[in-house]
Design brief:
It is built from five helices and four strands. With about 140 residues, the chain is an alpha/beta fold. The two termini are about 20 Å apart.
């Protein structure tokens, strides 16, 4: 039996502001590639518009996809925790620039620690910051 078949849901989620620093286009590109191998997995994005929602929509259109197929809007903190707990994986790939960006690193640690507490696979990478990755159980 594959690992995917025993997980609570077959959803991989991105929960973050939709802006360049949070790299939503990267999530979309990875989702497109993974769907070729795992067509049953649903990839969902949640978060407020941080100034790049229009850019994300253009990125999707270039790939013949619609925003409505990936993006489901902002969530409250409680809703984020629920989505993480229900999902098979939580993805957060943030681009940071320097030590002054510690706040981004802290938010990733908090989010991923919560996901790990719910026994959700966590996938993260911070480029240029302190958190390179946090493996999950």
């Amino acid at each position: 039996m594959s690992e995917v078949s025993v997980i609570k849901s077959q959803r991989v989620i991105f929960c973050s502001r939709i802006n360049k620093r949070k790299r939503p286009e990267f999530f979309v590109d990875v989702a497109i590639e993974l769907k070729k191998e795992f067509p049953g997995i649903k990839f969902e994005m949640y978060g407020p518009n941080g100034g790049s929602l229009d850019q994300l929509e253009k990125h999707l259109k270039k790939r013949n996809l619609n925003l409505i197929d990936f993006y489901f809007g902002p969530l409250s903190h409680a809703e984020v925790q629920k989505k993480i707990a229900e999902s098979m994986a939580y993805v957060n790939v943030t681009l940071t620039g320097n030590a002054a960006s510690q706040d981004y690193n802290q938010s990733i640690v908090v989010d991923l620690t919560g996901a790990q507490a719910e026994q959700v696979k966590t996938l993260a990478g911070v480029i240029g910051g302190n958190v390179a990755s946090l493996p999950s159980g």
